[in-house]
What does this fold into?
Amino acid sequence: MARFFPLFPEGRECVNCGATSTPLWRRDGNGHYLCNACGLYYKMNGQNRPLIKPKRRLVSGIRKPG
Ligand SMILES: [Zn+2]
It folds into this structure.
């Protein structure tokens, strides 16, 4: 399902990490909203901040027999 970003000033969300709360909103070269951390990283490195994906996802059903 394609979903467009609403033009509401509130309800912003960092397009990189999905953060909705940040001391300062920034924008990338395309005008997308970035949180402070991602915006700074983007500005310094010229690329999106790599995200650390949570590894809390337990996979059930995969067990070694025996
Ligand atoms: Zn972010």
User: Anything to note?
Assistant: The radius of gyration is 17 Å. The chain has a mean pLDDT of 80. Residues 36-45 form the longest helix (10 residues). The pocket of zinc ion is lined by residues 14, 16-17, 19, 34-35, 37-38 (CB under 6 Å).
